[in-house]
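Holo prediction. Input below; ligand is guanosine-5'-triphosphate.
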Amino acid sequence: MKALVLAGGFGTRLRPLSCTRPKMLFPLANEVMLDWTLKNLASSGVDTVVLAVNYMAEALVRYFGPTKFDLGIIYSREDRPLGTGGPIKKAAELLVDGEPFLVLNGDVISDIDYGQLIEHHKRKGGLATIALIRVPDPSRYGAVELDGDDKVLRFVEKPELGTAPSNLINAGIYVLEKEVLDYIPDGKVSTEKEVFPLLAKEGKLYGHEVRGLWVDIGVPDAYLEANHLVLEKLNGSAVGEGCVVDETATVLEPSSLGNGVLIGAHSVIGPDTSISDHVQIGQGCRIERSIIFPGVTIGDYSSIRNAIIGENASIERWVKVESGSLIGDYATISDGVTITQGVSICPSKTVTESILEPGQVM
Ligand code: GTP
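Structure of the complex:
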């Protein structure tokens, strides 16, 4: 069976981290985000993955190569953005082999059972089946209305609280028959807005509620939440090779330390924190519910909460990085600086004075 993974988006809502790498290569519990999905696909009987790439395609090709986790990996390269539907049409020849195929948004992290989804699709006999996930509040998403036979009746985009036809939302994971390609025009197309409503109108679209871990990594908070959920699933504190954690330091579960991480005296790390390879943390630091990319240095007595620190950034001493802030690769945050909530610091920027106005981009 084949799967197409949409991996070509710009990831604008995760800038500045996505300025220097595609979102699919962001670390999650110390593994590359898309590796989680590839492993799940490999264990579900998929043999070939077509990666639909556009933005920073070379970085993806270099990292994944021609095969990984026993999956063959083929690249479908786009020379302009094609949205979520255009890439399916463009990769048609690579996908069609007499069987239905899977399509996944590459920025969705999930451990759903693809085998069960495919079985449900075959049983219902539609042209397409959407994996549906139940959420407490569908008003941020689009709610899906099904009939008693799981046929999709309609989509309601961002329904106001209390008006949604169900709490089921599109999980960004589909099974498609080759006939669906006839519903996708050439060029930039949104599957969700242009293709699925048409299929639903003709009664050829089904939904299947799936259970398990599911997060759409679109915005920083969702990325931190995905990190939390994956760490929780791993249940404990993973420690890589060559880590040196001072005996007076504490690592609170669930957390993950990569290889060669150094943690100084009396520092408290975690819970829900991923520290990538070769990060150096001084003494008396506090890092909680955060993701630290590789090669970062964090000076003594600094604190980081609900934040993401890009590769090789330098957080000096007595620095405070608050909720929702993103520090770009190679940025330097000087001694004593406070970065308040929701601030983004561009790659390689040096910040010498506190930023106390939330939401600024520097
Ligand atoms: P934002 O810019 O922050 O909205 O992120 P994004 O570019 O990832 O867009 P969005 O979250 O809507 O994308 C959903 C999925 O489709 C992600 O896995 C993207 O990588 C992918 N995607 C979006 N646009 C394209 C495209 O033009 N080509 C390909 N191949 N994938 C795309």
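The mean pLDDT is 94. That is the main takeaway for now.
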